[in-house]
Amino acid sequence: MSRNLFDRLFASGLDLARVAIRHPDGSVSAYGDLAARSGQLANALVGLGVTAGDRVAVQVEKSAEALTLYLACLRAGAIYLPLNTGYTLTELSYFIGDAEPALVVCDPAREAGVQEIAKQLATGVRTATLDSHGKGSLSAAADAQPAGFATVARGDDDLAAILYTSGTTGRSKGAMLSHDNLASNSLTLRDYWRFTADDALIHALPIYHTHGLFVATNVTFFAGGSLILMPKFDADAVIAAMPQATAMMGVPTFYTRLLQHPGLTRELTANMRLFVSGSAPLLAETHNEWRARTGHAILERYGMTETNMNTSNPYEGPRIAGTVGLPLPGVALRVVDPENGVQLANGDIGMIEVKGPNVFRGYWRMPEKTAAEFRPDGFFITGDLGRIDTNGYVQIVGRGKDLIISGGFNVYPKEVESEIDALEGVIESAVIGAPHPDFGEGVTAVVVASDKSLDEARVLKALDGRLAKFKLPKRVLFADELPRNSMGKVQKNLLRDAHKNLYV
Ligand code: AMP
C-alpha cells in the first residue's frame, strides 16, 4: 500500500463533500474540489517535466491554489520545497543552486530574474508562475488538464519536502522530511489536540514554514475539518472569523496583537475550543492576560523545522505558562550535558535532544552536518537549551548559540529576560552577549519599555539582589521594538551585530 501522505490524507473514509477551505470571499472548496484541482495541478507538473523525486521550489504568496500545489507535488511524488516570500533573488540563487529543482514556481514579477539565475547556474531548471490570487502560467496549464491523476506510490522514508532552516548562523540547511515524518506527527497532534471534522481552524500563518504548512494544514485535513484561509495575519479579519471558528494556531505575536484589539472578548471566543501557540516563546504575561480576557488557556507547544512537533502542553490537564509541556506520544526527549552527551537530572539545564518518527532524514547534501547533529543512538541535537521540571514539563531557555559566557560563567538569557520582563513599565526584553575585553562576553539587555521614563540605572537597581552578580547586565539599552522575523522570533543575531562594539 502506498504511504504517500496525500493518499493517507485523502483515505477512503474522507467525506469529499465536506468543506476543506473557507476562502476570504466567503466561497468554499470541498475536499472533492481539492482532490480534483490537485489532480489538474499534478498533471500540469508532469507536463512541465517533473518526475518522482524531483524538487519543486515554490516562492509564491499564500493562496488556496498555492496550498493545493503542495498537495499536487505530493501526488506527483515530487519533493515540495517552499521558500520564504521575503527572499531576494540573490538568496534564491543559493537555494536553486543547492537544491537543483526541476521546476521553480514563482510570482510572475520574479520569473525573468529566476530564469537569469537558472541560466547562470546552467541547471536546466524550468519556471512557472502563480500570483497572490493563485493565477499564472501554472494555474493556466492546470486548467487545461484533466482532474484524474494516479497518485505516485511512495514509501514511508521517501522525501515529501525539503524546508530550509532560517540560517542565522552560516548557510541555510535543507531539512529533508519524509512522507511518514509529516504524516505520523500530524496524526499524533490530531489526536492529542482532539481535532475532528467539526473543527474550523483560523489559518493566518505563512505556508512556507512548518507551522502553517504542516502543523496547521495537515492536522486539520487529517481530521477532515476546514481551514479558514487568510492571506496573512490581520487582527480585524481574525476577530471577524472567530465566531465561526473552533481553533487557531499562531505565533506569540498573533496573541499580543489580538490582545490590543478592543473586539477580543469572552463572548467573541465562546465558540473556540483551542488556541495553540508556538515557533517562539510565549510570555507568561501574554498567557495570563489571554486567560483573563477570554477564559481560554493558550496551549503552547514546541517544535522545529527538522523535527516537526516535539512537546505540547496537555489538552486536558494543566497548561503551564512558560513551559512547552510534555513530550508527545512516540517522541523521546532528553536533556544532556552539551559537552559529553551525558543525560542530566531533571531540573538541570542542558541540550535538548529528541528521537522519534517525527525527526527528519538529515540535511540535503550535507552528510557531515547531518552526522554532527545526531548522536550515535539516533537522538537529534536540537540546539535548544532547556530543562525538565519536576512535573515532567519541558522549559526552553533559549538556543544554544544564544548562551552567554561571561567571565567563564554560563548565563542563560531567558533567566535574565524573565527578571527584566517582570519589572513595572517593561514590555519585553532580549538579553545578548557582546564581545567584552575582560569578560569575553558582556551581558547586555535590550529593553522595550512602556514607561518611557525608565532608564538604565533603575533597571540595574531593580535587578540587584535578584540575580547573581555575573548575570547582571553590564549595559541596559532601550529600543522601540525588538527585531523579529516573519515567525515572530527575536533575531538576536541582528542585535549582537548592532552592538558588537559596545565594550570594545
Ligand atoms: P523553526 O525551525 O523555524 O520552526 O524554529 C525552531 C525553533 O524555534 C526551535 O528550535 C526553538 O528554538 C524555537 N521554538 C519553537 N517553539 C518554541 C516555543 N514554544 N518556545 C520557545 N521556543 C520555541
UniProtKB/TrEMBL annotation:
CDD domains named among the record's database cross-references: MCS
Protein family: Belongs to the ATP-dependent AMP-binding enzyme family.
PROSITE patterns with a match to the protein in the record: AMP_BINDING
Name this protein carries in UniProt: Malonyl-CoA synthase
Signal peptide: none
Pfam families xref list: AMP-binding, AMP-binding_C
Domain AMP-dependent synthetase/ligase: 26-364
PANTHER family listed in its UniProt record: ACYL-COA SYNTHETASE (PTHR43201), ACYL-COA SYNTHETASE FAMILY MEMBER 3 (PTHR43201:SF8)
SUPFAM superfamilies in the record: Acetyl-CoA synthetase-like
Domain AMP-binding enzyme C-terminal: 415-489
